[in-house]
């Protein structure tokens, strides 16, 4: 065969489709080559196959970062800042009065119609710790963390529906198709532990986020960077054990053979998705051993279960907090947690701001406090950035869906101001940045955008959000689009 | 007529550029005229001087009208004025006398010299006058900043370094005054008194300016010092002027809080009612430390590539700590079975390795002897390894060490004692070790700068932990 000038076997592989694809790609590549020459080296074609086959290989950051990993706690549905952190005694005085028209003119709300009434804070507040930050009595454990975290009280967004707002917070754009923040981070920095995915997603059971899996998708980045969702109940990953009669050596041979074919394919077509496939086969093989170990909280000692309030075998936020600690302990780069049920409209008991909301608070209070403490005592909080927040805030007005009072007390979606907090990873301790007006409607100081928060997360990891780009459809894209300013006020 | 002279006066900053440019041009023509190729330019010298003289006279006149408005450092103004007049006078004399003086020297060589000599004083005068004028508008340290101020950002020079320090700070002296100094003094202090206002001492602040009192104690909204800050940037009366460096929102909020709570010049931050709020703003002014103490500031040569490759082929992670330098972070997370002997592979990279992660590996005390030779190390992770006190003793050679993680090791009191000699140590984690509280107490006595975390945190069981809220029936 080798003597035949035209390798018939190889030619057979080139179908009409391949021919067209190659010629189009070839022409395009010739034209693009000149444009691409000056673009980010991270985006350039891999130099050799050794590095090419491992897109997750750790890379140096732009500048030395204080954080090496991120745990992002997202409260899907958007918790009320007015019952947790943003204490507004003046709002109490206005309780049950009609909302002044100046706050409604030119505004659009998800459900509020006509003129709603103001709703005073449905929680008692106290100043906590040395910093004197206000934290409500709904979070009695977390109240002790006042001197560990930095609060951002003037975060704003421009999306008042859950799905686009969640996409905005996680991908920097309210529309589908952009990579999520965890994908950007693993694309920029790679991941250290090659036995585990670099970007793991855990949901508390119940509802998944409204925006679906796109909130941890990789968008136009190679799909190797998308978040790997682990199941919150039962086996974290399905079909981990080999089928009967297949031992690990045979499995290894099979995967090696498949990957060899894939490598040849990559050399011919240079498609990064082939690399993803190679990496995923290898990762899956290693995960058969590593995942049962790290994703099993049964082996944790009793005092750790008490600290977190975990019940093994049940899907819960607390279990996920413990898992998040175990994952960052194994150098997983980005752990994304989603909790649900925070959409306190007052349409039913579970969504009532004075009933269901308080149950939600209880569910996260001990667990997220334990997470901070446990990271701290293991020396992990130093280099792990913890971020907490929802996709928007809630109105100082009581929701009146279709201009009728809801059966329970509730608040509508509010885009102008909400509270987030960050801790660890080079963030100031006991800091509050930003304040809202007397009723918590607008920020009057320290107003920060969703893009600012994203820029800050990347900054803590040593990445310049303006330099972390990916060339797609003729232009470089970045997480923060054309905006974003690092919130230097909360950086230690 | 007054308004006319005022406008004329305010044209001064534009007019002054004419004599400077034109007279220098004349000098250039004069010099070039000596070369045969530019012979024709000689005839342009006299008209250029005449034009320069006229503009110099107009500049001096407009300058006089501007100086009548006041608001500048008198000493500087007088100096500038005298030099300005001298320039105009000398230029006028030159206009009339130049030709006749030159013709007195028939000898070609001497004539050349006298032409230059006649021009020199004028050039010196124009330069000095121009510089003095620049000092008036931009401040005396504009051209050559005093050595102490170099490298400083535009961000304010708030002296408070931490929130703890904020507790003992005086709001005015430690916070407000530095803000005023950074953002207001350039026009409202000894050098310049725009609007007849000075802000560089308690007495002057109480006195106010042309528009009266600037601080109305207790009411920020009616205090000019605060109101002018809050005007829209486009507003002519907004302070600081549009083109100058503006106060940040934190700084404005601090000025407001200071006025609202009595505008006292000696009240401590802790004595304020809104102390938490004020501390938050002060803390926000503390700029992030750009220097990362976990990486040396000095440059280092690139690492030996074959040594790096020897490690990476074994699956050990060797990654530069950032794109900015050659320092390395090494992690054995993917090679936890590493033997003590294998660690010798690290030695060729002694200068470059600053972070080393050996957590959860199979290394023992023997391996620490090799680690002890990596003297550039700033972060060392040894958590959950089989090392004990004897191994830790070897680490005292790591003088640069900032962070040491010994969680879950066989560390006892004796081992902790050895660590007291690490001069630069900042953070030490000893959760899940056998160290006793007594030893920790002793250690903390000796090493004030070390944050020691012994962990074992617990959260109390609260009655609210188990309350499930339901609708009231």
From TrEMBL, chain A:
InterPro entries referenced in this protein's UniProt entry, alphabetically: Alkaline_phosphatase_core_sf, DUF1501, TAT_signal
Matching PROSITE patterns: TAT
Pfam families: DUF1501 (PF07394)
PANTHER family the record matches: BLL7424 PROTEIN, DUF1501 DOMAIN-CONTAINING PROTEIN
Identification of the protein by name: Tat (Twin-arginine translocation) pathway signal sequence
Protein species of origin: Chryseolinea serpens
From TrEMBL, chain B:
Protein name, entry field: Uncharacterized membrane protein
SUPFAM superfamilies: Cytochrome c, RNI-like
PANTHER family: CYCLOINULO-OLIGOSACCHARIDE FRUCTANOTRANSFERASE-RELATED, F-BOX DOMAIN-CONTAINING PROTEIN
Highest taxon listed in the record's lineage: Bacteria
GO molecular function list: electron transfer activity; heme binding
Segments crossing the lipid bilayer: 14-35, 47-66, 78-96, 116-136
Domain Cytochrome C Planctomycete-type: 184-243
Segments forming domain DUF2231: 11-137
Keywords of this entry: Membrane, Transmembrane, Transmembrane helix
Species this chain originates from: Chryseolinea serpens
Pfam families membership: DUF2231, LRR_6, PSCyt1
Cross-referenced InterPro entries: Cyt_c-like_dom_sf, Cyt_c_Planctomycete-type, DUF2231_TM, Leu-rich_rpt, LRR_dom_sf
């Amino acid at each position: 065969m080798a003597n035949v000038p035209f390798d018939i076997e190889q030619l057979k592989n080139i179908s009409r489709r391949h021919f067209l694809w190659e010629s189009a790609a070839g022409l395009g590549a010739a034209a693009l080559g000149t444009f691409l020459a000056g673009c980010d080296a991270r985006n350039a074609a891999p130099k050799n196959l050794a590095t090419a086959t491992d897109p997750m290989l750790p890379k140096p950051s732009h500048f030395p970062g204080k954080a090496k990993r991120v745990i992002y706690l997202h409260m899907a549905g958007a918790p009320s800042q007015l019952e947790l952190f943003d204490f507004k005694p003046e709002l109490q005085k206005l309780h049950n009065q009609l909302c002044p028209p100046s706050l409604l003119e030119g505004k659009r709300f998800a459900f509020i119609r006509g003129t709603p009434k103001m709703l005073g804070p449905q929680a008692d507040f106290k100043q906590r710790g040395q910093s004197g930050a206000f934290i409500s009595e709904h979070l009695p454990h977390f109240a002790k963390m006042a001197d560990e975290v930095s609060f951002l009280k003037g975060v704003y967004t421009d999306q008042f529906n859950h799905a686009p707002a969640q996409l905005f917070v996680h991908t920097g754009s309210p529309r589908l198709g952009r990579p999520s923040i965890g994908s950007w981070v693993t694309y920029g920095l790679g991941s250290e532990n090659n036995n585990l995915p670099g970007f793991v997603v855990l949901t508390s059971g119940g509802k998944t986020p409204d925006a679906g899996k796109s909130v941890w998708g990789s968008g136009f980045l190679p799909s190797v960077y998308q978040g790997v969702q682990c199941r919150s109940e039962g086996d974290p990953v399905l079909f981990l054990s080999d089928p009967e009669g297949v031992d690990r050596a045979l499995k290894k041979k099979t995967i090696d053979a498949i990957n060899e074919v894939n490598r040849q394919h990559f050399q011919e077509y240079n498609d990064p998705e082939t690399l993803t496939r190679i990496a995923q086969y290898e990762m899956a093989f290693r995960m058969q051993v590593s995942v049962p170990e790290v994703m099993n909280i049964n082996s944790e000692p009793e005092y750790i279960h008490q600290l977190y309030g975990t019940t093994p075998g049940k899907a819960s936020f607390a279990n996920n907090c413990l898992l998040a600690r175990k994952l960052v302990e194994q150098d997983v780069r980005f752990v994304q947690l989603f909790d649900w049920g925070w959409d306190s409209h007052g349409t039913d008991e579970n969504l009532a701001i004075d009933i269901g909301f308080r149950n939600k608070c209880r569910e996260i209070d001990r667990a997220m406090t334990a997470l901070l403490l446990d990271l701290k005592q293991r020396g992990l909080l130093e280099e792990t950035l913890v971020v907490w927040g929802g996709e928007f805030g809630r109105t100082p007005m009581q929701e009146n869906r279709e201009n009728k009072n809801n059966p329970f007390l509730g608040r509508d979606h509010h885009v102008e101001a909400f509270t987030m907090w960050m801790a660890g990873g080079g963030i100031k301790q006991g800091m509050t940045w930003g304040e809202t007006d007397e009723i918590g409607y607008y920020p009057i100081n320290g107003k920060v955008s969703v893009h600012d928060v994203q820029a800050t997360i990347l900054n803590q990891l040593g990445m310049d959000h303006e330099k972390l780009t990916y060339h797609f459809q003729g232009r470089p894209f970045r997480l923060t689009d054309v905006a974003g300013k690092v919130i230097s006020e909360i950086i230690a | 007529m007054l308004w006319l002279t005022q406008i004329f006066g305010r044209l001064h900053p534009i007019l002054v550029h004419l004599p400077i440019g034109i007279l220098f041009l004349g000098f250039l023509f004069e010099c070039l005229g000596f070369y045969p190729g530019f012979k024709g330019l000689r005839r342009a010298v006299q008209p250029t001087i005449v034009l320069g003289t006229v503009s110099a006279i107009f500049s001096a006149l407009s300058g006089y009208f501007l100086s009548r408005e006041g608001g500048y450092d008198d000493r500087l103004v007088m100096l500038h004025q005298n030099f300005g007049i001298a320039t105009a006078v000398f230029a006028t004399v030159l206009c009339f006398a130049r030709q006749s003086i030159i013709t007195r020297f028939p000898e070609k060589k001497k004539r050349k010299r006298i032409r230059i000599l006649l021009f020199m004083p004028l050039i010196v005068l124009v330069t000095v006058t121009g510089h003095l004028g620049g000092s008036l508008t931009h401040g005396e340290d504009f051209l050559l900043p005093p050595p102490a101020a170099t490298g400083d950002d535009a961000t304010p020079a708030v002296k408070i370094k931490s929130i703890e320090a904020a507790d003992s700070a005086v709001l005015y002296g430690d916070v407000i005054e530095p803000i005023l100094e950074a953002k207001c003094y350039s026009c409202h202090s000894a050098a310049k008194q725009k609007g007849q206002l000075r802000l560089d001492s308690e007495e002057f602040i109480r006195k106010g300016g042309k528009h009266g009192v600037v601080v109305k104690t207790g009411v920020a909204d009616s205090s000019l010092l605060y109101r002018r800050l809050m005007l829209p940037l486009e507003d002519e009366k907004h302070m600081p002027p549009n083109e100058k460096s503006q106060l940040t929102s934190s700084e404005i909020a601090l000025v407001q809080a200071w006025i609202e709570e009595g505008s006292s010049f000696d009240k401590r931050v802790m004595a304020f009612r809104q102390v938490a709020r004020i501390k938050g703003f002060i803390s926000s002014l503390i700029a992030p430390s750009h220097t990362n103490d976990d990486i040396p500031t000095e440059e280092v040569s690139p690492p030996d590539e074959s040594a790096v490759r020897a490690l990476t082929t074994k699956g050990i992670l060797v990654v530069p700590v950032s794109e900015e330098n050659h320092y390395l972070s090494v992690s054995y997370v993917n090679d936890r079975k590493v033997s003590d002997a294998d660690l010798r592979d690290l030695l060729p990279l002694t200068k470059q390795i600053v972070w080393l992660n050996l957590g959860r590996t199979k290394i023992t005390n023997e391996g620490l002897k090799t680690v002890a030779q990596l003297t550039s190390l700033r972060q060392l992770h040894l958590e959950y390894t089989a090392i004990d006190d004897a191994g830790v003793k070897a680490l005292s050679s790591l003088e640069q060490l900032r962070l040491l993680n010994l969680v879950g090791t066989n560390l006892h009191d004796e081992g902790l004692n050895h660590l007291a000699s690490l001069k630069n140590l900042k953070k030490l984690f000893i959760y899940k070790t056998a160290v006793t509280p007594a030893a920790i107490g002793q250690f903390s006595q000796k090493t004030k700068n070390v944050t020691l975390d012994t962990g074992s945190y617990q959260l109390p069981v609260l009655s609210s932990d188990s309350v499930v809220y339901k609708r009231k029936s």
